[in-house]
Amino acid sequence: MSGHELAAVAQAMVAPGKGILAADESTGTIEKRFAGIKVESTEENRRAYRDMLFTAKGLERSISGVILYDETMRQKSADGTPFVEVLAKKGIVPGIKVDTGAKDLALCPGEKVTEGLDNLAKRCAEYVKMGARFAKWRAVITIGADTPGSTCIAANAHALGRYAAICQAAGLVPIVEPEVLMDGDHTIERCEEVTEWTLKAVYEALYLNRVTLEHSVLKPSMVISAKNCPRQAGVDEVAERTVRILKRTVPAAVAGIVFLSGGQSDEVATAHLNAMNRMFAGRLPWPLSFSYGRALQQPALKAWKGSAANVAAAQAALLHRARMNGLACRGRYSPDLETQPLAA
Length: 344
Ligand code: 13P
Hints:
This protein is 45% helix and 14% strand. It is an alpha/beta fold.
């Protein structure tokens, strides 16, 4: 792909009022999600679940791209059409998770580094042939009493820089995802400090690896209180602190920012995104959108329960969440819209 094409893909991924559906759960992760609804994680059940998501009518109104997992990339809809084609026909850009997971970081207890650089160029070339136009790599940073350390930040930033360069050379737009986990009891102030440090290191690594920022998308976590922190910051505080740190660390050339939900409830994740777009409308160099996994899929998964009879209800639940988040991209969401039916 030429530079122009990469730029066009990156722009399409963050088109106004649209965001990305992260449906790239690894086999291990989807098994956990299915366990929650008591559905066995067979290849056919995983296929049927993704079929339900991708064939939801009108999904393209608020979804610009979908992140797939290797197995899903090779699967087909019930009528025999490959999923990649199902999405492309709707004008939804297909993407692929290319990391092979976060593994223990040697000599750094409790910390992880994401693997998958070996053979990455070759794997990217195959995904491009199959129709993928962007990729995703997730790094995880754990906040604890003595973590993160600089070894963890440097190792993860380096891997993200190498990954992004390899993707661009292969013709894929990289989604650069450094996730600061919300597990634990740390304060929002500590999350802010660690997020700033992480993003500074990530953009230095992208520069060292010659990554073209205009052809990349950032997928950060929000600056938020940890799950078990006694003081839970409110929506406006999360929005203010998150945007402050992004302004300090993310170059204006980056095509767009799409947040992960990271364990926030679906409505809270929507409210946070909406507050940022409402408070900072017209004053930011990049669009702020979403690339939610759980916060988009949770209600649909619960409605589906593994049964073909529930497909329509599950799709309605997905479309509703997608629409709420699409509105949040424009700062036009409000909680009372949650109970309004989808307009025809
Ligand atoms: P969540 O929104 O559930 O955090 O998932 C997004 C994702 O792609 C994590 O890598």
